[in-house]
Amino acid sequence: MMHVPEEASGPFPAVLMMHGFSGDRVESHFLFVKTARALAEAGFVVLRFDFRGSGESEGRFQDVTVGSEVSDGLAVLDWLAARPEVDPRRLALLGLSMGGCVASLIAGQDERVKALVLWAAVADPMGLFVELQKTTPMPPPLGIQPDGTVDLGGYLMGPEFIRTLPDARPLEAVQRYTGPALIVHGTQDPTVPPRHAEMYKEALGERAQLVWVEGADHTFSAHVWEQKAISTTREWLLAHI
User: What is the reported pTM?
Assistant: First the structure.
C-alpha cells in the first residue's frame, strides 16, 4: 500500500515501513495506517507491505526467517526507489519490533538508506528468544511440534528461523550505517525490554536520538502513546530527510 502526498509536485522523500514478527502492513490498532497517513500529509511517500508468509503475501509463515525478511525488504526498497514519485536520494526505513531489526540489517548494507527509525526494535534477536523461552513456558499442544515448528498462538515458527537467528546481528549492522537514527520505545514494553533501545543507542552513539514513551507497551496501544510515537517520528523525519 503506497501513500502519496496530495501535492502535485515531486519527487518526494520516501519512508518504507517494516512490520513486526507475526504482524502485517496494518499492525495493531491500525498503527501503520495512521502513521503512513500522517507522514503522507507531511510530504512523504510511504510504503507499507507484508513480508512473504505474513499478512496477505504469498508463502508460509513457518518459512519466514530474518534473512528472508531482509531479502524482501531490499527488493521492496529497489521497487520504491524506482518510483517516479520518489526521490531516491532521500529514503528512510521505519521498523517496528522485529521489523526494526530487519531495518537495521538493511541500513547496514544499503547506502541508499539516509534515515532510520526504530520503534520498539529488537536489538538482540537470539538473546530475546532465549529469554522468552525461560519466561513463557508453552505446554502441549503449544511448543515444539513433530515437524520441528513451534506453535506461537497459532503462528507456526519454522526451525530454520530458530537455526539462523544467531546470524542476525543488528547492532553490528547499525555500526556500519552512517546516517542518523531515531529510537522510540515504550518504558513498559513487556515484549522487547527497554534495554534493547539502550543497546541501539550505545551502538549508534551521537547519531541516534532516543525518545521514551512513558508508560507505553510494545505497540504504543493507547491514543496518547501512538500519537507521541507518530508525531515524534514525523518531526524527526522532516528535520533529517
Answer: 0.95
